[in-house]
Design goal:
Elements lengths: L2 H10 L4 E2 L5 E4 L3 E4 L2 E7 L2 E5 L5 H13 L5 E4 L1 H7 L6 H7 L6
Parallel strand pairs: 5-6
Antiparallel strand pairs: 1-2, 2-3, 3-4, 4-5
């Protein structure tokens, strides 16, 4: 499976799989991981994207998530906010309520 196919399938709800390289994979049924970096998580019908910059390859995967996810389903957050959700256990709403972009 190509990385493009894996990202597409992840956004569409796939709960497992990996790209042929093995570096990009779906873990725990709803987390898209590149090497050891979680870059997206599905929560309900939403896709939460860790939009922090890491590498050229990770940026390609992040852009593919943006391409495949409907804008109404996509929530982009910083790596700090993402870590509060996964593995931190906070809800999306808790994180977004505490973020600067929703204050004021």
């Amino acid at each position: 499976m190509t990385t493009r196919e894996l990202v597409r399938d992840f956004v569409r709800g796939a709960t497992g799989g990996s790209a042929s390289s093995g570096r990009l994979r779906i873990e725990e049924g709803n987390v898209l991981v590149n090497y050891s970096t979680p870059i997206a998580i599905r929560i309900g019908n939403k896709v939460v994207l860790n939009s922090s910059k890491y590498s050229v390859t990770t940026s390609k995967h992040q852009n593919r998530v943006r391409d495949y996810a409907d804008s109404r389903r996509l929530i982009e957050v910083s790596s700090t906010e993402f870590e509060e959700i996964y593995p931190g256990g906070k809800s999306i709403n808790e994180v977004l309520e505490g973020s600067e972009r929703n204050n004021g």
